[in-house]
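Input sequence (256 aa), recorded before submission:
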Amino acid sequence: MFRALRITVLLFILLIVAVNTWLSQARSTDWDNSLWVKVYPINADGSAASDSYIAGLEPDDFAPIESFIARETLRYGRSLDRPLRMELGRPINEQPPAVEPESGAIGVMLWSLKLRWWASSTAGEQDSVDPDVRIFVRYHGPDQSFLLDNSVGLQKGMVGIVNAYAGRRQQGSNNVIIAHEFLHTLGATDKYDRANGQPIEPDGLAEPDLQPLYPQQLAEIMGGRIALAENEAVVPKSLEYAVIGPLTASEIRLID
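Predicted structure, token format:
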């Protein structure tokens, strides 16, 4: 009897979590109200350069992400005045949990649950009201070598982890990556080849009907890069050179 009661209570809790998750995801893409996205900076390499950069961050540094989403939602016929509201949180001193490359499906699932718990518990002390989306940006010194592709955005939990450079020259490209991972939390999928980072035709290209096809002038945000040739692509310097393509717009319910 007691065991059956425990199972019933657990199933009830899981049902509540599932319903709340579904409601949050549905609300995030109804485009009726502004989405509140909070950025939490993290010193990823422990360097003084990263500390200095983080100390100098201002909310306006992330305003181009607001402008990008506003521009693209308007282009798809949505008239919401401010679809995205970016906010800068206080620095986080704890690193997010890492996923092992060979962990398999079960390991990735457990990591996802651990990350969602970490995000809410770590940021919770400074959040009297929970934001719609939490983005943790791990800053590395400009002379450090790391993989930008290790950034991740989860729709379940509405949380993203971004690897970025602690340098003003890279601020624009940092915002491109933040916007990319933010759109993952709304349900957008990657549109580039994970083996080489090359945008996949046609949905990963901003201008799939361009003749000749290369070089492209813009990046489709989930393609991640401007395709200069069939085997060459670069991360755009800013969101001025990025667009949301039709498939991505459909995935985040900007269009039916």
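Checked by second reader. The chain has a mean pLDDT of 86.
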